[in-house]
């Protein structure tokens, strides 16, 4: 398909700009990098098809992520479940780069791994609020859940991830993260 | 209801009494300022951002982009989002009408984003920022994430040595769908000062302008599709000087 001849380039530019954020969100839903790739591709194609439905002045990243969530829940999640019989246990081999660059920080990798081991609902909220810095209300709208559920999922995630905060503080004291 | 930082920290730590936690969550549903206060105290945010700093890996999305956009991937992509351009056209029309009527220039962005930022900044006290203690690596990382969000390169070196201000934190907020970057400093007395950037490709360039917003010294200007504001405290000379220094670096 050759979307470049059919769709405005500015819209494509906006999609490319938002793609790293979209990919991280897709990863938080799918739990595996190859699935996140597929999900981002499907989301971008759907967004291109629905370009006329985007409301000027609204949040473009949130709009694409809402499409992404919809595709994941309605189309890809069940297929993946049928194939693998599992959902929440993010497949480690799909997450860890086998040849990390020299700059790869061991602690960062541990943080990433622990977030990805959260249940899907918690990691998507953590990703949206802590990484992408959406408000609770925006995160709730993207995920199609009540704002109270965003807060309860964050509370649950905090309990699991709390030791990381202490590890981080300890490493800061030692200067290992400087 | 007004909460102390200690109460909010106990909520975050999961040690607050159930009644307090329920009250905080009920208020959070309708109080974005409380949410911002809570997130400002959220110690996990820099940790989690550190974990995601290399995600996606550099170059990982290139192949995906090419697969999606095929023959257009190598062509020049405009940097101005289309929805902001339409906003710009509407803003130009409104601004023309307003200027004709002899009214103020901010009418293209109602309500005035500066007043909204000032309302938020007015809630900051020394205690709000006292616990912020980012490492240089964390500050750089936050700036990199903010740079990507707003589309303007922000360098740590441009934000140091500013009249004795200490850089504490960078976070991404939003205003009417556009990214708004808030960079928080402490003045030599520990009082909060903020430098804010709002992407607005429709905004006409304006010279630096000193003002007093919500009782705080402020200086703002517009250039290259961005609105800028330095605000905090009551020392107008310091704010003006800081604004001029930042202006010389970022614009």
UniProtKB/TrEMBL annotation, chain A:
GO terms for biological process: DNA-templated transcription initiation. Pfam families: Sigma70_r2, Sigma70_r4_2. The keyword Chloroplast does not apply. Residues 19-79 form the RNA polymerase sigma-70 region domain. Keywords: Sigma factor, Transcription, Transcription regulation. GO terms for molecular function: DNA binding; sigma factor activity. InterPro entries: RNA_pol_sigma-70-like, RNA_pol_sigma-70_dom, RNA_pol_sigma70_r2, RNA_pol_sigma70_r4_t2, RNA_pol_sigma_r2, RNA_pol_sigma_r3/r4-like, WH-like_DNA-bd_sf. Residues 115-161 form the RNA polymerase sigma factor 70 region 4 type domain. The keyword Cytoplasm does not apply. CDD domains: Sigma70_r4 (cd06171). NCBIfam families: sigma70-ECF. Belongs to the sigma-70 factor family. ECF subfamily. This is RNA polymerase sigma-70 factor, ECF subfamily. It comes from Pseudovibrio denitrificans.
UniProtKB/TrEMBL annotation, chain B:
It comes from the Bacteria. This is Transmembrane transcriptional regulator (Anti-sigma factor RsiW).
């Amino acid at each position: 398909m050759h979307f470049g001849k059919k769709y405005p380039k500015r819209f494509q530019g906006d999609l490319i700009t938002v793609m790293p954020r979209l990919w991280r969100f897709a990863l938080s839903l799918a739990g595996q990098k190859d699935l996140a790739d597929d999900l981002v591709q499907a989301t971008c194609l759907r967004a291109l098809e629905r370009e006329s439905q985007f409301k000027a002045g609204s949040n473009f990243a949130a709009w694409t992520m809402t499409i992404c969530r919809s595709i994941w829940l309605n189309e890809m999640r069940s297929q993946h479940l049928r194939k693998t019989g599992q959902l929440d246990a993010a497949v480690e081999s799909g997450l860890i780069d086998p040849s990390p660059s020299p700059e790869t920080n061991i602690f960062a990798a541990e943080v990433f791994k622990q977030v990805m081991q959260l249940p899907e609902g918690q990691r998507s909220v953590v990703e949206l609020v802590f990484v992408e810095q959406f408000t609770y209300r925006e995160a709730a709208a993207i995920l199609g859940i009540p704002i109270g559920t965003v807060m309860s999922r964050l509370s649950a995630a905090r309990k699991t991830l709390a030791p990381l905060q202490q590890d981080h503080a300890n490493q800061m004291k030692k200067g290992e993260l400087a | 209801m007004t909460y102390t930082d200690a109460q909010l920290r106990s909520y975050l730590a999961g040690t607050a009494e159930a009644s307090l936690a329920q009250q905080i969550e009920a208020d959070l549903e309708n109080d974005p300022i409380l949410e911002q206060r809570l997130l400002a105290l959220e110690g996990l945010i820099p940790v989690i951002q550190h974990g995601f700093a290399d995600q996606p890996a550099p170059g990982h999305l290139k192949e995906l982009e090419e697969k999606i956009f095929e023959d257009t991937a190598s062509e020049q992509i405009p940097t101005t989002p289309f929805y902001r351009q339409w906003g710009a056209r509407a803003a130009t029309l409104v601004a023309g009408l307003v200027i004709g009527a002899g009214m103020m220039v901010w009418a293209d962005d109602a309500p005035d984003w500066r007043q909204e930022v000032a309302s938020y900044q007015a809630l900051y006290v020394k205690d709000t920022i006292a616990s912020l203690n980012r490492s240089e690596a964390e500050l750089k990382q936050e700036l990199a994430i903010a740079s990507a969000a707003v589309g303007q390169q922000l360098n740590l070196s441009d934000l140091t040595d500013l009249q004795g201000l200490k850089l504490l934190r960078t976070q991404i907020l939003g205003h009417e769908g556009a990214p708004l970057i808030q960079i928080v400093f402490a003045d030599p007395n520990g009082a909060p000062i903020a430098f804010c950037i709002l992407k607005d490709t429709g905004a006409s360039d304006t010279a630096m302008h000193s003002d007093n917003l919500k009782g705080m010294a402020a200086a703002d200007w517009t250039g290259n599709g961005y609105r800028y504001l330095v605000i905090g405290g009551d020392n107008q000379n310091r704010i003006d000087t800081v604004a001029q220094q930042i202006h010389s670096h970022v614009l």
